[in-house]
Amino acid sequence: MQPLTNSVGENGTNTVSDVALVQAILVKTQRPATRNAPAAPFLASYDGVSGNATVAAIRDFQNQYVFVSPDGQQSAPNNNATAGLVGQGDATWTALVQRVPAAFRNMRVLAGGRTVYVQATDPQLQAKITAANALIFAPAFRTRVNACINRMHALHGIAIGVCRQGDRRNFQTQYDLLTNGRNVTRAGPGESNHNFGQAVDLGFEGLRWLRSDGRVVENEDSWLHQLDPQQTVNAEALRFWEALRTVGTSAQVGAFRGPAADRPHLQNWNDANVSMTVRLAAHLTRSGNMQWGRGRGTYTCDLGFGGQLYAVGTAAQIWNNQATVTAQMLTQARAGRAAAAAAGGQRPGMPPVQPQFPGRQPGPGNQPPGGNQGPVTQADVTAMQRELRRQFELADTNWQNWTP
Ligand SMILES: [Zn+2]
């Protein structure tokens, strides 16, 4: 059992979390049946507030189990107990821990909180670690994920686990999350730390906490929907999220928070002043055979022609084969390359054209689609849209080489 931080009951300190823990024990512990009354819990419910019913329950418990002589005589003195009060490690506390049913002998409560929960067992912790190890993370980050799960159990007795789709997401999964209408993310394919194994969503699935009447919640989900059905600002739920994020960002774990509203999210690096879209443009350039940049609300790309960058749309548009390529854009890109070739690799007033794909032989997929001859057709535009999608696929495949 988690020890008390202070006394509970009549004239006690009555810190809310201490009161909740003592009350929960009294709710789960039965008073023996008498000739006049059946067995019943010492206390009907718990709420973290020590009132008359709580003090009466403590006295009732003490009369049964504390102020009793070895031969069963009631009203016996006990020098290590105070009537109506539970002290840290005193005889009343010891008796409470002894008398509560074994299944509840390891209950806990977060500092300042009033939600009592049952400590996760070692096998429950191991199951979470095994599940996490079967998921995909960048190797350096996997170490942090495991450290976070272990430390959350060591400090708080909670076995957290990775939420569904909380590990590495490929670009298609990210696209699906963005477009499913549930407002889960604002990041498009390639724009989330999750796409590169650099982030994790951790949650509380299986947390066994006690409702006010002592019933144990056996089906809690990652997001604490039982504790916080509306997912609004529920102080008790926030306490659990805060504990998770404090552990995650501790020196022993070393991860970083993402956006404040993204409660389960931890990541491998601090991106507070970094643009994920600019990072994606750089990763696209490294992964494929086009030059990429970032404009206002759009990616820019040289379309493989080695010159000017053109606005080609959002990550979601490009992934969906709907890059904002136009026939005029392609015509201009071709003309730019032709002029550069005529000038011997130089365009007037422009820096020298870079060798387009250093060290690579031109080949299928390594040439701007649509060729360089004749008027641009709609088929050329469609081919370029598909080629831009293919560049995103190359970046997706190359996820392990993404750099912050
Ligand atoms: Zn996340």
- How would the global form be characterised? rod-shaped
Hetero groups: zinc ion
- How many strand elements? 13
Distance between the ends: 43 Å
Helix content: 25-40%
Unreliably modeled segments: 347-366
Largest sheet: 4 strands, antiparallel
Instruction: Please state the CA-atom Rg, rounded to the nearest Å.
Output: 31 Å
Can you offer a commentary on this structure?
With 404 residues, the chain is of the alpha+beta class. The chain folds into 3 domains: 8-106, no CATH class; 122-267, Muramoyl-pentapeptide Carboxypeptidase, domain 2; 276-401, no CATH class. It is 35% helix and 9% strand. The strands form 5 sheets. The protein has a 4-stranded antiparallel sheet with strand order 7-8-10-9. The chain has a 3-stranded antiparallel sheet with strand order 11-12-13. Strands 1-4 form a two-stranded antiparallel ribbon. Strand 5 and strand 6 form a beta hairpin. The protein is rod-shaped, with a radius of gyration of 31 Å. The chain starts with 7 loop residues before the first strand and ends in a 7-residue tail after the last helix. Mean pLDDT is 91; it is low at 347-366. The structure holds zinc ion (ZN). Residues 194, 199, 201, 262, 265 line the site of zinc ion.
Top keywords for this entry?
404 residues, binds zinc ion, Muramoyl-pentapeptide Carboxypeptidase, domain 2, 9% strand, alpha+beta, 3-stranded antiparallel β-sheet
Brief digest:
This protein has 404 residues and is of the alpha+beta class. 35% of the residues lie in helices and 9% in strands. The chain has three domains: 8-106, no CATH class; 122-267, 2-Layer Sandwich (Muramoyl-pentapeptide Carboxypeptidase, domain 2), CATH 3.30.1380.10; 276-401, no CATH class.
